[in-house]
Amino acid sequence: MRILLVEDELDMASALNDALSKHNIVIDHVASIADAREAVHGRSYDAILLDRQLPDGEGLRLIPELRADNIDSPIIVLTAHNDHEGRIRGLDLGADDYMGKPFVVEELIARLRAVLRRPTLLSPDIIRVGRLAFDVAHMEPSLDGKQLLLPRRELLVLAALMKRSGRTVIREALVNAVYSFDVEIQSNSLDAHVSRLRKKLAGLNAGAAIHTIRGIGYLLKASE
Amino acid sequence: MRILLVEDELDMASALNDALSKHNIVIDHVASIADAREAVHGRSYDAILLDRQLPDGEGLRLIPELRADNIDSPIIVLTAHNDHEGRIRGLDLGADDYMGKPFVVEELIARLRAVLRRPTLLSPDIIRVGRLAFDVAHMEPSLDGKQLLLPRRELLVLAALMKRSGRTVIREALVNAVYSFDVEIQSNSLDAHVSRLRKKLAGLNAGAAIHTIRGIGYLLKASE
DNA sequence: ATTCGCGCAATGTTTCTGCAATGTTGGAAT
DNA sequence: ATTCCAACATTGCAGAAACATTGCGCGAAT
Question: What is the pLDDT of residue A43?
Answer without folding.
Answer: 83
